[in-house]
TrEMBL record:
Protein name: TIGR01244 family sulfur transferase
CDD domains associated with the record: PTP-bact
One of the record's GO molecular function terms: transferase activity
Organism of origin: Yoonia algicola
Keywords: FAD, Flavoprotein, Oxidoreductase, Quinone, Transferase, Transit peptide
Length: 557
């Protein structure tokens, strides 16, 4: 007997027999639902046998037989009614448990979001791909698929999605392209560090989405609910279906603020802020300007995160501001990093350490933020040093800059496109999906082992586009991605350590050392970040102009 929990109140299993009823009772169950019709198998006990044994054990039993592969909308309603009426927890069973899991999924369609339903069933070992459209449709069988069809569909209108759309249009102007994204506003997120440092105004980092979607590209303003790659279909909220010949997946990354107890309730007040949100970055600068003494904590969660240098950039710019105002000596800077190193590419660490010393910052490795009490100005960290038990410590603060834990978006994690960790599973060179050869991915959502930065997406977009164009012509991949990513580390106002590297930490500088030596702080790199990169983003990358982003050709050996 293999019992698999879906919720605290419901578990499912394959066929049970009367001899197992006692064990079911001892496991805490109070009721049983049979979803298998009598006589389906020669060795199958009848429902009456199960019900008789259940009654003797003090369990209630209900019979809701479902023919395999024929779960109706009314069946799902009846199952939900049984769960409401029976005492819990309940064990539902059929031949394998699939029908029971399907009934629950459809019954929960109006009570839980799709991602939660798919995550629960996937964890129990059941694939609900066949009923995704019905779940999205409120548990009811769709009567009108409303298909729209495009040659290329792009999921996500962030940096990577718009750049890919613009680059495709530049190469093939007549191509029918649709880009799917529910957002009204598009953000230049690399600018938020500068907002938090008092350099940019927040409004400089935002544009309307409508003004950025390339001309001739269809904008479908909706959220994606699920993928059906075997049917070349994307399912939208509301159960609309968009078909594609080729698909690009780039919806970005999920900032999981709720992973830290108490954080959501205190963000933007009580001295708790984050440059990872448009509305909070100005509050960071307000706190920096107002702090004259006390403790300032800067946190970094476990990898992966977007722009791995951003948590320490906030620390450096804050330390620089306090140094310029002459209050640094009265401020205790603590950098609490869940990882074990300051930066993952060793060549940049010496320059960064000079600034750690300049700002008298304390580096606390293996410290992961787990809870915050904003009004009390207290934070708790789990300290997980190698080969030692995890210890929870408490720290007071006057200001705290938080970097949240990050995961792939829910609808990606539970989809057929995801690897075991939840990221879109691609070949790290061609960025083509490993299973579905008409799907590509770029940006923060895919699982290539590169830094998740805007600069990486700038290089990835033309790689994906050139390989799609080659595929349309019946050719193999022609472009390859070398893992390039860039992290302009703002170590003080006016100077940046320009980290540029690829797979394996290989240094990939864009400029000769005489112009910018990325391993040392430079004013030239600051000028690049402050003055050049924003227009390169708005007027270059998002317009399909691939300045300094020429794809590397595939090497034929």
């Amino acid at each position: 007997m293999d019992i698999k929990p879906l919720t605290a109140g419901l578990s499912v299993s394959a066929q049970i027999n009367a001899a197992e009823i006692k064990a079911i009772k001892d496991a805490g169950f109070r009721a049983i639902i049979c979803n298998r019709p009598d006589g389906e198998g020669a060795d199958q006990p009848t429902f009456n046998e199960i019900a008789t044994a259940a009654k003797k054990a003090g369990l209630e039993a209900a019979y809701l037989p479902i023919v395999s592969g024929k779960v109706t909308d009314d069946d799902a309603k009846a199952f939900d009614k049984s769960l409401t009426e029976l005492p819990g927890p309940v064990l539902a069973y059929c031949r394998t448990g699939t029908r029971s899991a399907t009934l629950w999924s459809l019954a929960q369609a109006n009570q839980r979001n799709l991602a939660d339903i798919l995550a629960a069933t996937k964890a129990a070992g059941y694939d609900m791909a066949g009923v995704v459209r019905r779940i999205v449709n409120g548990g009811k069988t769709p009567t009108d698929t409303g298909d729209a069809s495009y040659e290329v569909v792009i999921v996500g209108a962030g940096a990577g999605g718009i750049a890919a759309a613009a680059s495709l249009k530049a190469r093939k102007p007549g191509l029918e392209i649709a880009i799917i994204d529910p957002a009204d506003i598009h953000y230049y997120q690399p600018g938020w560090t500068m907002v938090g440092g008092g350099v940019f105004g927040a409004e400089e980092t935002a544009r309307t989405m409508a003004s950025l979607i390339p001309k001739g590209v269809h904008w479908i303003k909706s959220a994606v609910a699920a993928f059906e790659p075997k049917n070349n279909a994307v399912i939208l909220d509301g159960c609309r279906v968009v078909k594609y010949t080729r698909l690009i997946v780039c919806p970005g990354i999920k900032l999981d603020w709720n992973k830290i107890e108490g954080l959501v309730e205190t963000l933007g007040q009580n001295g708790v802020t984050s440059n990872y949100r448009y509305d909070l970055a100005p509050y960071t600068w307000k706190l920096v300007e107002g702090l004259k003494e006390g403790r300032a904590i800067f946190t970094q969660p476990p990898m992966p995160i977007k722009c791995a240098g951003a948590p320490q950039k906030a620390m450096y710019l804050s330390g620089d501001a306090w140094s310029r105002r002459g209050v640094l000596k009265d401020i205790d800077i603590q950098f609490n990093n869940a990882g074990g190193v300051l930066f993952g590419v060793k060549e940049y660490v010496p320059a960064l350490m000079d600034y750690v010393k300049k700002y008298e910052a304390h580096l606390n490795f293996f410290h992961n933020l787990v809870a915050v009490d904003g009004p009390a100005k207290k934070a708790w960290f789990d300290v997980a040093k190698p080969d030692t038990p995890v210890e929870r410590i408490e720290m007071d603060f006057d200001m705290m800059h938080v970097c949240p834990q990050q995961t792939a978006p829910d609808f990606i994690r539970v989809s057929p496109l995801a690897d075991a960790a939840g990221w879109v599973d691609v070949d790290q060179s061609t960025l083509r999906h490993k299973t579905y050869d008409n799907i590509w991915s770029l940006g923060d959502v895919m699982n290539a082992p590169n830094a998740k930065t805007m600069a990486a997406a700038r290089i990835q977009a033309p790689v994906v586009v050139e390989n799609i164009v080659a595929d349309m012509a019946g050719r193999s991949a022609v472009a390859q991605y070398n893992g390039y990513g860039s992290c302009p580390l703002t170590v003080e106002r006016g100077k940046i350590v320009l980290a540029e590297f690829g797979y394996g930490g290989k240094l990939l500088p864009s400029f000769p050392k005489a112009i910018i030596d990325g391993t040392k702080p430079s004013r030239a790199a600051w000028f690049l970040k402050e003055k050049l990169l924003p227009p390169i983003y708005w007027k270059g990358m998002l317009k399909g102009r691939e300045w300094m982003a020429k794809p590397e050709k595939v090497t034929v050996k």
